[in-house]
Amino acid sequence: MKPVQQLWPPEFAERYRQAGYWKDETIGEMLRARAMETPHQLAVVAGDNRWTYRELDAHADAIAAGLLAIGLKAGERAILHLPNQAEFLSVAFGMFRAGIIPVFALPAHRETEIVHFAEASEAVAYVAPVRHEGFDFRSLANELVRQQPQVRNVIMVDGPDDVHTAERPDFITLDQLKSLGSDHTPPAPTSASSVAFLQLSGGSTGLSKLIPRTHDDYLYSVRRSAEICRLNTSTVYLGALPVAHNFPMSSPGWLGVVYAGGTVVLSPSPAPAHVFPLIERERVNITAVVPPVALVWLEAAPNTTHDLSSLDVLQVGGAKLPLEVARRIQPVLGTHLQQVFGMAEGLVNYTRLDDPDHVVVSTQGRPMCADDEVRIVDDFDNPVPDGTAGHLQTRGPYTIRAYHNAPEANERAFTSDGFYRTGDIVVRRSDGYLVVEGRATDQINRGGEKISPDEVEDHLLAHPQV
Ligand code: J2J
């Protein structure tokens, strides 16, 4: 990969290191540290798998060695396209260890998106299940290598019911991959300031852009999130959303749980029929959902026979949680609500666990870091006073300065002084809490006055990133 000239300017990097945000630790090293400290602690529960930290660490090592043995090189990209299964974690950590950069595709992505990611990231490998929810990923893999011949390696992960077969001789199974690498010398250590992976932008229109996150910046956001959410070795976190998404990955998500030495339980779907039995059986105490899932749980909970009493924190984010729904969470589910307003590009806001109820139900939280710079501006980039809706722009120790390989999008999405134009319309209250009003497409700040569709069109031309 070309050096990402688009990372933080040196004076900012220096400041973030001095402040202790960037600790020069890689994600692979973080898992190793946990495996040394608490080898027998349960790390992952998924389907029939129950892996300790020592086991997860050993799987990751075997995968890292296998990836290098088949010829992948540190710095090359590989598309990771797995649903919520234990191998998601072992493959992701295996890639981090080998210095290979995963591109985190979501299970629902199909040919158009995967081909686009392969092209945009110049990926050389693809990792997918043989089959998932009735979809045959082998045919997608066939099509991918036909259209993007730089994809040299396809690794198929068998599900519990699959016969061990990748079918094409040039596709291999994860088990084969793991058996290949035993004697392979580990690569030179990865630098914590280098890109660890490419996350996808949540853009509501068009294809996602690729978001380069470094070990340093991402682990800061993970550690700080784990602290805000009070994770520890007793944490049992349920991954109900697809764990490739930034929210269940880092806010605090499965990486936060690994940092804290807790247990990650993975559900194949967020439907009550899957999650309620898991919450009861594993005594889950924290999980993260999007508002429509919260609503489904609220409907199902009064009639369930499952004991949900272990659930202490329900994080809701990804889209605006309506006030009426927010108010029902604690009384109906018997759990604390935490609102999370974040983005894969960086900035994450949380309501705090000790905030008064009215703040928790009516705001989307406040930035997690004292050095998150937040600016609310009008259509002409002029700051607006607190209490007035405007465009949210941000800069800080874990917010990217540019998308991967996208000069035109970067022109639009970042200001000349390096702030990311989030595309969100928010109100900042005098106490620093943010209330999300919508996307810039829904509503444009002009003193609250409604504007015509033509003006919306003009605005979109001026702010095409939204
Ligand atoms: C309103 N809109 C929200 C919220 C995100 C934590 C939580 C969520 C994401 C995420 C994430 C919202 N209320 N509570 O990455 O780490 C909308 C905004 C935002 C966009 C980002 C995390 N929480 N949103 O959702 O990159 O419009 O990240 O800019 O997928 O989702 O989407 P995404």
Task: Annotate the secondary structure layout.
Blueprint: H1 10-18, H2 27-37, E1 42-46, E2 49-52, H3 53-69, E3 77-80, H4 86-98, E4 101-104, H5 111-121, E5 125-129, E6 131-132, E7 135-136, H6 137-147, E8 153-157, E9 171-173, H7 174-180, E10 195-200, E11 210-214, H8 215-228, E12 236-239, H9 246-250, H10 253-260, E13 263-266, H11 272-282, E14 286-289, H12 291-300, E15 313-317, H13 323-333, E16 336-343, E17 346-350, H14 357-362, E18 366-367, E19 373-377, E20 389-395, H15 407-413, E21 420-428, E22 434-439, H16 453-462
Parallel strand pairs: 1-13, 3-4, 3-5, 5-8, 8-9, 12-13, 12-14, 14-15, 15-16
Antiparallel strand pairs: 1-2, 6-7, 10-11, 16-17, 17-18, 19-20, 20-21, 21-22
Helix pairs in contact: 2-3, 2-4, 3-4, 3-7, 5-6, 8-10, 12-13
The site of ligand J2J has 21 residues, from helix 9, strand 16, strand 21 and strand 22.
Number of strands: 22
Q: Compounds present? A: ligand J2J
| Category from helices, strands and their pairing | alpha/beta
Q: Widest sheet: strand order?
A: 2-1-13-12-14-15-16-17-18
Q: Residue-averaged pLDDT, rounded?
A: 92
Shape estimate: globular
Q: What percentage of amino acids are in beta strands?
A: 15-25%
Rg over CA atoms: 22 Å
Report the end-to-end length measured between terminal Cα atoms.
28 Å
Q: Major β-sheet, in short?
A: 9 strands, mixed
Number of helices: 16
Unreliable sequence segments = 443-466
Subunit arrangement of the protein: single chain
Helicity range: 25-40%
